[in-house]
Amino acid sequence: MLDEFIPAGTSTHYDRVRTLCALLCRFYEVIGAEGQFLSLRGKQELRELSSFLREIYVNLSREALQARSRMWKCTAKLHLFEHLCQNQTDWGNPTDWWTYSDEDLMRITAQLA
Questions:
Q1: Residue 32, CB half-sphere, CA atoms under 13 Å: how many?
Q2: Contact 60/20 with Cβ under 8 angstroms?
Q3: What is the DSSP string of 12-65?
Q4: Whether residue 84 has pLDDT greater than 80
Q5: Which of 9, 64, 73, 89 is the most buried (most CB within 10 A)?
Q6: Residues 64/73, Cβ–Cβ less than 8 Å
């Protein structure tokens, strides 16, 4: 499906975007296939996936900053995603306990600032 919108080899930028999308899809595949508690293999894959995803996202953010674009801004959500994959999978599959409540907290915090 990505090929319809972003042909492979179009540019380094779009190759990064394609890879980022593929990593996010893989994240949801892994947590969808795992049970209440992730296997050691599942935990390891999520840890590796999150490190690679962070690296790509930060590169996209740097590109946008140099182009004076507001896209790919690094936010607390990226940091939260990394913690989710790196540390919190020891407590179980994120699908069993995540609430995304921080989304509302960030909006409220921004309004207070």
A1: 6
A2: yes
A3: HHHHHHHHHHHHHHHHHHHHHHS-SS--HHHHHHHHHHHHHHHHHHHHHHHHHH
A4: yes
A5: 89
A6: yes
d(CA 70, CA 72): 7
Q: Which of 59, 61, 63, 89 is nearest to 75 (CA)?
A: 61
Residue 30, class by beta-carbon neighbours within 10 Å (0-12 exposed, 13-18 middle, 19+ buried)? buried
Q: Find where tokens 């921080």 sit.
A: 102
Going by pLDDT thresholds of 50, 70 and 90, the confidence category of residue 56 is: very high
pTM here is 0.77
Give pLDDT tens digits for 4-36.
666 666 688 888 998 999 999 999 999 999 999
Those residues with Cβ within 8 angstroms of residue 73's Cβ, 6 or more apart along the chain or in another chain: 61, 64
